[in-house]
Amino acid sequence: MKHLLRRSILTVALTSGLLGPPASAQQTTEKADAKASTGKSESAATLPNIEERALAILKKANDFLVQAQHFSVTVVNDYDSVQQDSGVKIEYGATRKYTIRRPDRARIDTDQRGGNQRGFFFNGKEIGVFDSDQKVYATAEHPGTLDEAFKYFVDQLEMPLPLSQIFSSTLPGLLDSTPFLRYVDAQTIVGVPCDHLAGRRKNVDFQVWIAQGDKPLFQRLVITYKFAVGEPQYRAQFSDWNFSPDVADSLFAFTPPEGLEKIPFAPLMQAKTETTEKKGGSQ
Question: Do 246 and 93 touch, CB atoms closer than 8 A?
Fold first, then answer.
């Protein structure tokens, strides 16, 4: 029981905002998926096809990042949490610095507006995360590439990792499930001329602004959970792109801050097996 309780604490600590929206936003997304699966969402057949101009711009941005072997970027994001009792939207936010070195290094440093610090580390062999507010950290062995680590973290450890598809090479797969994508117009974001695109997936609408020219970098992203109560949004502003950061291997090595307690998190299938076994033993 103690082991399960500790794992639950870590899940709450991380899914409440370590690398993404608070738990309430996660719940509204799950509800949106359920509603969409009932057929209440707008069918892809009723929507216009993907506009080739928009698709070309999005693919160009993806290819540019996939080919970049080493880069860093700062992302200022905010997201809505709709209060269940009143329906009022409350905005939360954080600043994250992503440092990527392909094929198997990543670090994400998160500073929340309230002062809490959180982090994600991957060095090709091990994933490490910590939460200074909850005073906990956890590690998981997972040798492999960056894409494999992101997928394992999200699918098996069930932890949120915003923008992971942008920083991996999985955008073509994302486009396969995007029935609607349109070019809006040309706009300027913080002095950068951009192409403004709008798209739709099963349970979300999204807008993205991509810099024009020979460096088609993401400048802004807005996601609207259109089936969730209050249609909350996730917003991200990109800045300080650097494709030659002076970074040593030690940056990706996970050393937990002092005073934090190590607690386990189990892969999804292992957690389900343990829970089943415990239930069976109690009968």
Answer: no
Bond prior to 245 in cis (omega within 30° of 0): no
Long-range contacts at 208-214 (CB < 8 A, ≥ 24 apart):
208/58, 210/57, 210/58, 210/60, 210/61, 212/186
Please write the tens of the pLDDT for every residue from 57-88: 999 998 999 899 999 999 999 999 999 889 89
Kindly report the CATH number assigned to the domain that includes residue 250.
2.50.20.10
For residues 283 and 122, give the distance between their C-alpha atoms in angstroms, rounded to a whole number. Answer: 41
Q: Which of 197, 142, 192 is nearest to 171 (CA)?
A: 197
Closest by Cα among 189, 162, 212, 163 to 56: 212
The model's pTM? 0.78
Count of domains for the chain: 1
pLDDT of residue 6: 40
Whole-number Å distance between alpha carbons of 230 and 263: 35
Domain containing residue 182: 2-282
Return d(Cα 19, Cα 95) in angstroms, integer: 10
DSSP string, 198-247: EEE-SS-EEEEEEE-SS---EEEEEEE-TTSTT--EEEEEEEEEESS---
Residue 160 CA to chain centroid, in angstroms?
A: 6
10, pLDDT greater than 60: no
Can you tell me the distance from the alpha carbon of 41 to that of 268, in angstroms, rounded to the nearest whole number?
A: 29
Please provide the DSSP assignment of 92-115 as one string. EEEEEEEEEETTTEEEEEEEETTS
Which range among 3-12, 138-147, 229-238 shows the weakest confidence by mean pLDDT?
3-12
Q: Are 126 and 111 in contact (CB under 8 A)?
A: no
- Grade residue 231 by pLDDT with cuts at 50, 70 and 90: very high
